[in-house]
Write a structure and sequence with these properties.
Layout (H helix, E strand, L loop, with lengths): L2 E6 L2 E6 L10 H16 L5 E6 L3 E3 L4 H9 L9 H11 L4 E5 L2 E3 L1 H4 L6 E5 L3 E3 L13 H9 L1 H10 L3 E2 H7 L4 E3 L4 H13 L3 H12 L3 H18 L3 H11 L5
Parallel strand pairs: 2-3, 3-5, 4-6, 5-7, 6-8, 7-10
Antiparallel strand pairs: 1-2, 8-9
């Protein structure tokens, strides 16, 4: 099962479960995660969703083998929701969303944090947005959400440099809310999730909507800009060479 789900005390924990691929998102995982968020949104027994990863990674981003296939394989079949469907589900998710970054996060494993209401990070984890090293554009409305969350210069460095950021840098930037020792990460994230989940869901949703609704037009516009640039740059010579390097195991 590529996405595990567990319910405890009105908290639904979703665990990305492709540890052999560092929880990289292929079309199946994009679909499963989008479907899980839509189901949690509609479930009256779920007050909070906690998202984490299995193994040593939170998520290594989009599966680059599939990204290459999207460019080169005329028979490539996209998923039902895919990347854009997941981002739509995230941006519209009406309940508190907490991320527990247990290991490395790359690409969507970082930009997903812009959609989180709270983010916890293991002290040994690290994060990277590899967009410029892959010759592509940013994603997941990160060009809009991250400057608001981190300030323009921190966001610019994160999105442009393709350099690793450690947990304490991420905390100073404001990308995550708390840094925990690895053995304490899920305990702390779940403890905070259960504090929220003890409150009326209707009230939690009202607060979430008051925070999120003003951002949604900006998220939609940023996603459209990013997707247009991404489509323009995907498959160019620079991108093709970078993908070949990464899929050969030399880029990470």
């Amino acid at each position: 099962m590529i996405l595990q789900s567990d319910d405890t005390n009105r908290v639904r924990t979703l665990t990305l479960n492709r540890p052999e691929a560092l929880n990289a998102f292929n079309e199946a995982l994009y679909d499963a995660t989008a479907e899980a968020l839509l189901a949690a949104a509609d479930d009256p027994q779920v007050a909070v969703v906690l998202l984490t990863g299995a193994g040593r990674a939170f998520s290594a981003g989009t599966d680059l083998t599939e990204m290459q296939a999207r460019v080169s394989d005329p028979h490539f079949v996209p998923g039902k929701y895919g990347f854009t469907g997941l981002i739509d589900a995230l941006s519209r998710f009406p309940k508190p969303l907490i991320c527990a970054v247990n290991g490395i996060g790359v690409g969507i494993g970082v930009t997903i944090l812009g959609h989180a209401d709270l983010a916890f990070m293991s002290s040994t984890a690290r994060l990277k947005c590899p967009f410029t090293s892959l010759g592509v554009a940013p994603e997941a409305a990160s060009s809009y959400l991250l400057p608001r969350l981190l300030g323009r210069q921190n966001a610019a460095w994160l999105l442009m440099s393709a350099e690793w950021v450690d947990a304490h840098q991420a905390l100073r930037m404001g990308l995550v809310w708390k840094v925990c020792e690895p053995s304490e990460l899920l305990t702390e994230a779940r403890r905070h999730a259960e504090i929220l989940a003890a409150h009326p869901i209707s009230s939690l949703m009202a607060v979430k909507n008051c925070i999120a609704e003003p951002l949604r037009p900006g998220i939609s516009a940023a996603s459209a800009r990013e997707n247009a640039y991404f489509a323009e740059l995907l498959g160019t010579q620079v991108n093709a060479e970078a993908l070949a390097k990464f899929t050969a195991g030399r880029g990470m």
